[in-house]
Amino acid sequence: MLNRSVRSDRPAFTLVELLVVIAIIGILVALLLPAVQSAREAARRMQCGNNLKQLGLGLQNYHDTYKSFPMANFVYLNPTNSNVNTGSWAVAVLPFIEQSPLYDQYNRNVPAANEFGAAGQANVALIQTVLPAFICPSAVGSPQGRIYTGAIPANGGGSIPGLPAMTWKAAPCDYGPISGVRGAFGNVAYSNNQGGDRHGPMREHYTVVGLANGNPGCRMADVVDGTSNTILLGERTGGGEIYSKRLAWTDTTYKPLLAPTNGGGWGDPLNGDTWLQGTLYSGLTAPPQGGPCPINCTNLRGYGMHSFHPGGAHFEMVDGSTQFISETVAAFVFAAKITRQKGEVAPNE
User: Fold this and answer.
1) Per-residue confidence (pLDDT) for residue 181, from 0 to 100
2) pLDDT of residue 9
3) Cβ count near 328 (within 10 Å)
4) What is the pLDDT of residues 187-219, one digit of tens each?
5) Average pLDDT in the 132-141 region?
């Protein structure tokens, strides 16, 4: 029997050729990865804008029902009988964003705070419910992981004498109203002339019986600067983390004091207490410093609106339209979009 060796005429890959193929695949992956990431962010950004649209429509339906928008937040205090209550716009809008069962369980006669017995603690349990309508998919971290401990110090930190200290845990909310313009940002926007009305469409409501009466609710007709020109809600990354630009703030002195009062939850009454004073374009300083940057320089309450979208953030206007406003927007233009009846005439950016 004749032995024959089996031989293939097909040439094998050399080591050099194999390395070249691997290098080409690596280059293709490097080229495709940013495109994939960009597509994913585009989808997250669209969902984030849709959430804001849903909240805006809910607030419009609230207005149709009650003939005014809800208060951004409210505090009620009766020193004679120690009756106290607090609340937020986000609790008020629950029935209008298909969350009536949750709203019906919420005891609106007591604050969502651990210090107010079983009823207050039951409210605290409710506001730890993660609701997708309040979550921007682009925000860093899982929604459950962003449940945080919030607090109001005694006497409201010195602004509301007689208010007891309150603590709670809250699920995050990446959206909120802007109560108005003040401080360094107001000075930049209005060239040190802050005269006139600098309030947004949803105002704060503080009632201290015998001392102060709260503001009335804002009606659509009160937005005389134009409903398509005035911001109702905007993005401000929620939860317990404070960001400088898009990085967690590393300060160890002020951050522990400010994080509990950052108003980063939908059941947190501080969420609506956002008088914008801006910060520096370089980010958040320690101690915090006001400045000309209103968007994406920090999410610290009162210092900036904030998102993880490249280039800007979403804002819902009073008329129900949604705008993506650049993080480089001029201070005067953005201030004009916040105030409801100051009478500015500013171009869109």
Assistant:
1) 94
2) 58
3) 12
4) 999 987 667 788 999 988 888 888 878 888 899
5) 96
CA distances from residue 304 to 252, 253, 289 in whole angstroms, order as listed: 20, 20, 11
Strands (E) located in the chain:
73-78, 83-88, 148-152, 166-170, 175-176, 180-181, 204-208, 231-235, 243-244, 247-248, 275-276, 312-317, 322-326
What are the φ/ψ torsions at residue 275 (nearest 5 degrees)? Answer: -90, 110
CA-only gyration radius of the chain, Å: 25
Residue 169's pLDDT is 97
Tell me which DSSP letter residue 78 carries: E
CA distance 199 to 181: 7
Q: Is residue 321 helix, strand or coil? A: coil
For the chain, how many residues are written? Answer: 349
> What are the CA-CA distances from residue 276 to residues 39, 302, 332 (Å)?
32, 5, 13
Enumerate long-range contacts of 77-85, CB under 8 Å, 24 or more apart: 77/160, 77/162, 77/163, 77/207, 77/208, 77/209, 78/208, 78/209, 79/162, 79/208, 79/209, 79/210, 79/211, 80/209, 80/210, 84/111, 84/116, 84/163, 84/164, 85/109, 85/110, 85/111
**Strands 247-248 and 175-176, sheet pairing:** unpaired
Q: Render pLDDT for 216-265 as a digit per residue (tens, 0 to 9).
A: 889 999 999 999 999 999 999 999 999 999 999 999 999 999 999 999 99
Both structure tokens of 266: 């939908």
Question: Is the Cβ–Cβ distance between 182 and 198 less than 8 Å?
Answer: yes
Respond yes or no on whether the N-terminal peptide bond of residue 287 is cis (omega within 30° of 0).
Answer: yes
Q: Would you put residue 312 in left (φ > 0), alpha (ψ -120 to 50) or beta?
A: left
At a CB cut-off of 8 Å and minimum separation 6, what does 256 contact? none
